[in-house]
Amino acid sequence: MKKSSLFAAALLSLLVAACGGEKAAEKAVTSAASEVKAAASEVKAEAASAASGVAATVTEAASEVKAATASAAEAAATAASEVKAEVASAASAAK
After folding, report:
1. What Rg value do the Cα atoms of the chain yield, rounded?
2. DSSP 8-class letter at 2
3. What totals of helices (H) and strands (E) does the chain contain, helices first?
4. What is the DSSP string of 30-58?
5. At what angle do helices 22-94 and 3-20 cross, to 10 degrees?
6. What dihedral angle (degrees, nearest 10) is formed by the CA atoms of 60, 65, 69, 70?
7. Please, what is the Cα angle at 87 between 82 and 92, to 5 degrees?
8. Whose CB among 3, 20, 75, 93 lies 3.0–4.6 Å from 24's, allowing a Cys bridge?
9. Dist. CA 55–CA 42, nearest whole Å
10. For residue 1, is pLDDT > 60?
11. Are 54 and 43 in contact (CB under 8 A)?
């Protein structure tokens, strides 16, 4: 339920209570408190879901960075090996 709907229901309950006496007011306050508690639980669940999604995204990004780093390290090692071979070949040819 949307927060604005809950707020409207709480206000309506309080208005009805104001017209109906003390017992009705107690009932309206209890009802409004229950609705607020339900809304808070809903917000808490949405926040937990969002946090879980963020954690999954961060974990995936970290994995991608790790893979890219490993790939870059492998490419650098290959390039260094090729340069070393070329230097050795040039040194042999210069003798």
Report:
1. 33
2. -
3. 2, 0
4. HHHHHHHHHHHHHHHHHHHHHHHHHHHHH
5. 170
6. 0
7. 125
8. 20
9. 20
10. no
11. no
Residue with tokens 């995936």: 60
Q: How far apart are CA 52 and CA 57, in angstroms?
A: 9
3-state DSSP assignment of residue 29: helix
Query: Are the CB atoms for 24 and 13 separated by under 8 Å?
Result: no
**Amino acid at the residue 52:** S
The reply to whether the predicted model has a pTM over 0.85 is no
Collapsed DSSP state (helix, strand, coil) of residue 75 = helix
How far is residue 11's CA from residue 35's CA, in Å, rounded to a whole number?
Answer: 11
Q: Give the number of other Cβ atoms within 10 Å of residue 62's Cβ.
A: 10
Q: Which residue has the tokens 């669940």?
A: 45
